[in-house]
Design goal:
Layout: E1 2-3, H1 7-18, E2 22-25, H2 45-54, E3 60-63, H3 68-75, E4 81-83, H4 99-112, H5 114-119, E5 123-126, E6 130-134, H6 141-152, E7 159-163, E8 167-172, H7 178-189, E9 194-198, H8 204-209, E10 214-219, E11 230-232, H9 236-251
Parallel strand pairs: 1-11, 2-3, 2-9, 3-4, 9-10, 10-11
Antiparallel strand pairs: 5-6, 6-8, 7-8
The structure holds the ligand O=P(O)(O)OC[C@H]1O[C@H](O[C@H]2O[C@H](CO)[C@@H](O)[C@H](O)[C@H]2O)[C@H](O)[C@@H](O)[C@@H]1O.
Residues 26-29, 34-36, 38, 41, 64-66, 125, 132, 134, 136, 164-167, 169, 200, 202 line the site of the ligand O=P(O)(O)OC[C@H]1O[C@H](O[C@H]2O[C@H](CO)[C@@H](O)[C@H](O)[C@H]2O)[C@H](O)[C@@H](O)[C@@H]1O.
Amino acid sequence: MRSIFSPEGAVALRRTVETQALLVFDFDGTLAPIVDDPADAFTPTATAGLLLHLLGHFKIAVVSGRSTQDLAPRLGFSPTFVVGNHGAEGLGDAPSAGHLEAAAWLMARLAAHQPELDAAGVTLEDKRQSWTLHYRQAADHSRARQAIQRAIEPLDERLHAFGGKCCVNLVLASASTKGDAVEALVAQAGASGVLFMGDDVTDESVYRMSRPSWLTIHVGRTEHVTGASFYVDTQRDVASVLRRLVDLTHTLGH
Ligand SMILES: O=P(O)(O)OC[C@H]1O[C@H](O[C@H]2O[C@H](CO)[C@@H](O)[C@H](O)[C@H]2O)[C@H](O)[C@@H](O)[C@@H]1O
């Protein structure tokens, strides 16, 4: 991975503008800084202003692990496309087969383990098509992870679990991923290229599907192995990338 602020990164950003690529952003940790309480996450005003400006030149998508209903008031701008639930919601497809049964299985397991989960400081975010068990505010993260593990394992075969930032996510095993969603959006937008920025395990599905014409930028360098081509060091650098795109649209007259 190279810095997007390297000479190679400058070439890749220029190509993004020249080809009027589809701009795709993850939300938490990418457009919005990570905060203790998920309810407090919003796109900073300056970032939303840059995105609003870029909407005059590009189609923009936000592809998030949150539900689309939760996302809308947090964005600060109205993207061309919004996809939620890690790729499973917003592209017109009905919830995956077995959804109700899997949800019932999960709720029963969580109810059975409620006292232990509560004592460990684990909270549930129910997004209807996926579920997140949060432990950022738990006193002992290791204890919280163990409580989650005891509650969900052995996991129902209709579900898939994966880690995130101080959380465990559960999605339908048959559900579309963020990678599937970006592919579908490229077709829908008729775009020849993509710029994608993400920061989390769930964003790796996009990096894995990446084509030579896609520019993938990971926020952060050390948290986990990543297949992105470029990185920025912190979430604050996302606004700098957006500013460079705005400058390039002026320089290149797009
Ligand atoms: O795909 P994303 O848009 O990055 O969504 C991933 C999850 O983000 C949220 O949780 C994370 O951000 C919270 C706010 O900063 C933080 O408190 C939490 O520890 C993080 O895991 C969101 O609540 C989840 O639903 C998303 O799946």
